[in-house]
Amino acid sequence: MSLVAKYPNRTAIIPELISIAVEELEHFQSVYQIMEARGIQLAHTIHEDLYIKALMKAQHDGLEERFLDRLLIASVLETRGAERFKLVADHLEDPDLARFYKMLWTSEAKHGHVYVKMALEYFTEEKVYPRLKWWVEKEADIIKELPLRAALH
After folding, report:
1. Which domains does the chain have, with CATH numbers?
2. Mean of per-residue pLDDT scores for the chain
3. Model-level pTM?
């Protein structure tokens, strides 16, 4: 939703951004219901996310370049989240949880593609795909530098 607030003139992508936001909130609702059923409480504190912070620090400064970067960072985040959810789904013994993580995996993978599609709404392929490649490589470098921690998204 921050993209809608920061770029309200980008009306072609607002419906898709809203749909993704609604879907993400539904995912959170589902996760919370599973946690509640298992007697697991939400964390009392949320620590600074060094991964996100490092990605955001690497963005361009110009208005147009930053807009492109925000879309492509979102794509990388969603795609990496999908990869992690798939790993979990493939190794769970509980069939209900495995199904749930498969649903998350497929949804997040779709979101990754949608953000690239949104970028292509405003920028050429010649600009989008090389920058996306750069972000994938930058994200890999960032991960190598971060301490190991339990995280799915």
Report:
1. 2-145 (1.20.1260.10)
2. 94
3. 0.91
